[in-house]
Amino acid sequence: MDNQPKNPLHGVTLEQILVELEQRLGWRTLGEQVKIKCFTDAPSIKSSLKFLRKTPWARDKVEALYIHTINNKPIRRPKSAPRPTSDRAPDTSAFVWPSMKKKTIKRRVITPFYSL
């Protein structure tokens, strides 16, 4: 039997991954993080397992989310989530508007060797 000390998924079943993610994040957040219909439309462990076992790209995304979750790495915020606001005005002192001048291109005129 091979020991895989560096592999965080070694010995963890897909069902254990789904149960852990559902307990930590919930179906709604799971559906926002991994855009899969089985997480957003009447989600269940059974239907999710069936889909993920048949779809390698979706399973890879769920496994990556699980690794991020167990390592306590920050999860990317869904696009629909509001951005945090700051009371401070943005610092625009170092901003310089780009030049709007058109670059002139030197064109080379090619003369024909013969005339018609």
The helix content is 40-55%
Number of helices: 5
* Order of helix and strand elements from N to C terminus: HHHHH
Write down the Rg.
27 Å
Strand content: under 5%
Gross morphology: elongated
Structural class: mainly alpha
Can you give the mean pLDDT? 77
| Regions with little confidence, pLDDT below 50 for 5+ residues | none
What is the terminal-to-terminal distance? 84 Å
| DSSP E strands, number | 0
Largest sheet: none
Structure description:
The chain is mainly alpha-helical and 116 residues long. It contains five helices and no strands. It has helices at residues 14-24, 26-33, 37-40, 45-54, 56-70. Helix 1 (14-24) packs across helix 4, helix 1 packs across helix 5 (56-70) and helix 4 crosses helix 5 (56-70).
Task: Record keyword descriptors for this entry.
mainly alpha; 116 residues; 41% helix
Describe the structure concisely for a colleague.
This protein is mainly alpha-helical. It has helices at 14-24, 26-33, 37-40, 45-54, 56-70.
